[in-house]
Amino acid sequence: MTTSHYIAGRWVEGQGSDCISVNDPALGQPFAELMAASVAQVDQAVTAARGALPAWKNTSASERAAYLRGFAEQLGQRREALIALQMRNNGKPRHEAEIDLDDAIATFGYYAELAEQLPSKNRDVPLAAPGFSARTRLEPVGVVGLIVPWNFPLVTSAWKLAPALAAGCTVVLKPSEVTPLIEQAYGQIADALGLPPGVLNIVNGKAETGAALSNHNGLDKLSFTGSNSVGSQVMRSASAQCRPVTLELGGKSAIVVFDDCDVGQAVEWIVAGITWNAGQMCSATSRLLVQDGIADALLPRLQVALEQLRVGNPLTEEVEMGPLTSQAQWLKVAGYFATAREEGLQCLAGGKALDRDGWFVSPTLYADVPKDSRLWTEEIFGPVLCARRFATEGQAIAEANDSRFGLVATVCSADLERAERVADALEVGHVWINSVQAVFVETSWGGTKGSGIGRELGPWGLSAYQSVKHVTRCLG
Questions:
Q1: How many beta carbons lie within 10 A of that of residue 263, not counting itself?
Q2: Catalytic residue among 96, 177, 183, 248, which?
Q3: Residues 238 and 260 in one domain
């Protein structure tokens, strides 16, 4: 694949120094290669976005909505190819890849509707003082850089791309070097729809490409989803330019199970929260807080459920969990298994890499994990669950909140008043009650503390790409 970058409405060859190897994680083998974009090509992409901005931001909301609906329709037309690519490059089971695609389609459809509902650019503002009039305008923030991760490609980019385009921004999208292929669909769709050149640009590459984009003085905003370590670098780059950022970063989320729960139902919610996408999600509920009265019944059932989970190659087997997406992530998770052995943690299930081709690990459960354990405090990004017991509601809230992260949490209880009370007390951006992690485009996404800055999805996702201007006139 040589024409792997979409700049100013054209597919071009990469001119960077890095060769990107695209792997099948179920086999641990590459199946494609592409050359990274050069720093000069990143500059060309930003320049193209800057040149396209005046015309694009002045298109009508209905025109932009029509393009967004076109993206949704075109994604649907490419359904089987995109699902197969998700399975091959990410190692996602089919049902997960299908949900990812449906999520991306729904996101473009939702922001098409929101674009059509945008108020007129001018809205009068009542003033208490006589002799003046005032009006406010919502304007696109400008040219935005979008940097997206490898765990939910296509989805995370839709969460950023759709509201940015709806607001009237032009964009430069940088996919992860681990999963660079699937975002190519957005460039292909832009071609098919006749999207004006420069409105959407896609540059692939590794750290050099990401740094060139985040440091570029031609951007008006950066939106980044990924690790805290890279997020801090992105924030540093933004601070040098004094420009806004949206950061969706890591998590070490809690799932709190009270002793009035149905054990079987609780096990289902717990397993889903730690094994979906092989635990490679910032929202993984990797800290299990289980009340004393149910712990002895729940932990053995949970152990069996994890041991019986079907793990394998999604392209050749009926599986519930696939491999880790990259060798680097596999080595990281294996390192935490070694740390658990060094710390003497009690392993009830898993705790090891699987002896087969590819980057597979076993779904893992550790019991009675100390609060100072690295496995309790650090984001692992794999199917590794740590459990602790609690006695009272107050203790559960305190331990759930005792984290430098604050992305999500889950509360499981038959007492809905208590569940709602606990949800209100948790210091996170999103709470599920008696549910798997169902994410809807109408709701917000983002966290508190070290889990990031700003919100995506819902009307908050659109406002992240809008700037507010007031015009005040003296009537005298």
A1: 16
A2: 248
A3: no
235-279 pLDDT, tens digit each:
998 888 899 999 999 999 999 999 999 999 999 999 999 999 999
Q: Is residue 211 part of a domain?
A: yes
Residues 233 and 380 in one domain: no
Please check whether residue 443 lies inside any domain of the structure: no
Q: What CATH number should be reported for the domain holding residue 292? A: 3.40.309.10
Give the pLDDT confidence of 377-435 residue by residue, as tens digits. 999 999 999 999 999 999 999 999 999 999 999 999 999 999 999 999 999 999 999 99
Does the residue 442 lie in any domain? no
Residue 2: the pLDDT is 52
Residues 263 and 366 in one domain: yes
Same domain, 167 and 234: yes
248 an active-site residue? yes
- Residues 217 and 262 both lie in one domain: no
Full 3-state SS string of the chain: CCCCEEECCEEECCCCCCEEEEEECCCCEEEEEEECCCHHHHHHHHHHHHHHHHHHHCCCHHHHHHHHHHHHHHHHHCHHHHHHHHHHHHCCCHHHHHHHHHHHHHHHHHHHHHHHCCCCCCEECCCCCCCEEEEEEEEECCEEEEECCCCCCCHHHHHHHHHHHHHCCEEEEECCCCCCCCCHHHHHHHHHHCCCCCCEEECCCCHHHHHHHHCCCCCCEEEEECCHHHHHHHHHHHHHHCCCEEEECCCCCEEEECCCCCHHHHHHHHHHHHHHHHHCCCCCCCEEEEEHHHHHHHHHHHHHHHHHCCECCCCCCCCCECCCCCHHHHHHHHHHHHHHHHHCCEEEECCCECCCCCCCECCEEEECCCCCCHHHHCCCCCCEEEEEEECCHHHHHHHHHCCCEECEEEEECCCHHHHHHHHHHCCCCEEEECCCCCCCCCCCECCEECCEECCECHHHHHHCCEEEEEEEEECC
Same domain, 137 and 240: yes
Q: What's the pLDDT tens digit per position in 189-206?
A: 999 999 999 999 999 999
Ramachandran angles phi, psi of 364, nearest 5°: -125, 140
**In sequence order, what are the beta bridge partners of 384?**
364
Q: Computed over its alpha carbons, how large is the radius of gyration of the chain? A: 23
Tell me the angle at which helices 184-193 and 61-77 cross, rounded to the nearest 10 degrees.
Answer: 120
The whole domain housing 127 covers 5-249+452-474
Number of domains in the chain: 2
With respect to residue 333, please indicate whether it lies within any of the assigned structural domains.
yes
Do 219 and 272 fall into the same domain? Answer: no
CATH number of domain containing 103: 3.40.605.10
